[in-house]
Amino acid sequence: MAKYDHATKSAQHLLEEHGVQQPPVDVEALAQQIGIRVVYEQLEDNISGLLVVQEDNTTIAGINSLHHSNRQRFTLAHEIGHYTLHPHSPTVWVDDAMVHFRGEDLHAPATPEEVEANTFAANLLMPEPFLKQDLQGRAIDAMDEAAVRRLAQRYRVSTQALTIRLIELGLLGGVRQTS
């Protein structure tokens, strides 16, 4: 994860700058505070969201209203990551507007920019200090599904996103590490 330290630090900085001290992170308020207008629209199921920076620098995050609210939060955090980390590298230009497009092509390899935006999103929604405080320095047992579910609900993220984050941080017990 050292390769993505910039994404981690950028998310931490945004949380500190806006005085966020506990979960769940109000990701929509953060987006608005940094100048992103958030719009929820029905999109194709395989489209999670997109970030549009218009010629006049107006920025809009389009989020799929058909997706679960936890997914919407992660997608918005991901789009904030693009806005913060990749302000001049669009994935697509449409009518003189820069567009970061987030889809779900599971067969295509993730670009470094997409991995960075996901790293940013995970750090924004599930900050390491918050998780460590909630777990009081102990790992959570991977087999305790109820505990994992409760913690995911506290952070308003999916159990899958939380599990991945806990593994990354070494805070998930009962899982054998493979080498």
| Total count of helical runs of at least 4 residues | 7
Mean pLDDT: 86
Q: What is the CA-CA span between the terminal residues?
A: 16 Å
CATH architecture of the domain at 2-125: Orthogonal Bundle
Helix coverage percent: 40-55%
Runs in which pLDDT lies below 50 for 5 or more consecutive residues are 92-98
The coarse overall form would be globular
SSE layout and pairing:
Blueprint: H1 5-17, H2 27-33, E1 36-41, E2 47-53, E3 59-64, H3 69-85, E4 92-94, E5 97-103, H4 112-125, H5 128-135, E6 140-141, H6 145-155, H7 159-169, E7 172-173
Parallel strand pairs: 1-3, 6-7
Antiparallel strand pairs: 2-3, 2-5, 4-5
Helix pairs in contact: 1-4, 3-4, 6-7
How would you describe this protein?
It is a single chain. By secondary structure, this protein is α/β, with parallel strands linked by helices. The protein is 45% helix and 18% strand. The chain has a domain at 2-125: Arc Repressor Mutant, subunit A (Orthogonal Bundle), CATH 1.10.10. It has helices at 5-17, 27-33, 69-85, 112-125, 128-135, 145-155, 159-169, and strands at 36-41, 47-53, 59-64, 92-94, 97-103, 140-141, 172-173. The protein has a five-stranded mixed beta sheet with strand order 1-3-2-5-4. Strand 4 and strand 5 (97-103) form a beta hairpin. It is globular, with a radius of gyration of 16 Å. Residues 92-98 have low confidence and may be disordered.
